[in-house]
Amino acid sequence: MVRKSSARKKKAGNEEPGKIFVIDTSVILYDSNAINNFDEHSIVIPIQVLEEVDNFKKGNETKNFEAREFIRFVDQVAQNQLINDWVPLNGAGKGKFKVALTHDVKGVDAVRVLGDKKYDNQILNCALSTQEANPDKKVILVSKDICLRLKAKALNIQAEDYETGKVKDVSKLYKGHQSIDRISETLLDSLFNKGFGDPELLPKKVKPVANEYFVLRNAKKSVLARYDALEQMLVRVKPEPAFGIKALNAEQSFALDALANPSIKLITIQGKAGTGKTLLALASAIEQRRDYRQIFVSRPVIPLSNKDIGYLPGDIKSKLDPYMQSIWDNLNYIKSQFRNTDKNVQRIKEMVDNEKIAISPLAYIRGRSLVKIFFIVDEAQNLTPHEVKTIISRAGDDTKIVFAGDIHQIDTPYLDSESNGLSYLIDKVKGSPLFAHIALEKGERSDLANLANEHL
Description:
Blueprint: E1 19-23, H1 25-30, E2 42-46, H2 47-55, H3 62-78, E3 87-88, E4 96-100, H4 110-114, H5 119-133, E5 138-142, H6 146-154, E6 158-160, E7 177-180, H7 185-194, E8 196-197, E9 213-217, E10 222-228, E11 233-236, H8 250-260, E12 266-271, H9 277-287, E13 294-299, H10 316-335, H11 343-353, E14 357-361, E15 373-377, H12 385-393, E16 400-405, H13 421-429, E17 435-440, H14 447-455
Parallel strand pairs: 1-2, 1-5, 2-4, 5-6, 7-9, 12-16, 12-17, 13-14, 13-15, 15-16
Antiparallel strand pairs: 3-4, 8-11, 9-10, 10-11
């Protein structure tokens, strides 16, 4: 696995021979800073990778931004040096890199074996020729493209995924809540009567983190609670509706509590289809409309068949509406909780007309100031860790950001349940008093939807 600290953990006198990493385009489009994450090892960039990166430099999507950043970085490091030979990377403990122009191989030829001169096969030949030229080194192809890694291994090339930013085991990913039985009557009574309780009365094995939620119960009663790390107390969670939307289970109660808490600025909600992720976030945002200057609801646009939205007919609104439709569906569902003559229906319409509620793809949010904004990012599992960091880093004063998604439903070719930005965020930020996470596990859309999720 390719990790930042892998080389530094080696003991002196027992070091492996130097490694050479051959980098695929998919790695650069995932993380433009990737070549700085291989410690003292050498990096080879096939010339075909530069050509592919050049093809991605135009556009508003994050992959276009990554392409431009990488090109600028290489130009800055190279300065007046030629890059067809080894160029040292800046910084202590860093290696060197070069761009490989020719990939002549004496043994197995990937282009000949696979019968195609496409760039992927030429990148494989780059790894093969690097192996032949450096028999004393371990040569590793690094790619986010699973099929390319498989072809590499078939050609006797060691291949690895780019692991920086990956979560080791998503089955152990923080859920944000837990249920505990056999709770003392003293703690339950305190939470019921006073609204708070001493966390020392929890079982010793339980070590709560900031804003973790609990279902606490014994044979007689149960109560919902959240751990307040600043006060070092358990506080009772009382289910409160948000603009007509009521919690249908304990998990949804936790989500609404976190969404309504002004001290929690960053929230992640993870769950399969029909658990209410986007609906709860949108309803809570509208409920708190007076506290925020604007409500942004956004999602990454993943075009079908990997074609750009420019292929679709109509103006920009017509092109984007199909991708935003699920958000409009949630907004219409909230409106349906009231009669047509109810003032809340007209209020939502006015908010949309006046752009108090702004629904837009993420590509069109770039560059906007996020000050006093309730920002909902739907389908966040299709973001890279860098994209998530970029969004959060734009948050100004009094802004709340909600990332919602299903880490097991990835629509982006080079992401998976371990490497997507939502998993990364949950894993890295848990324990912060500004952060809360809720994993929604029970589907509430319909019995038919639950049947599909459970058995198909």
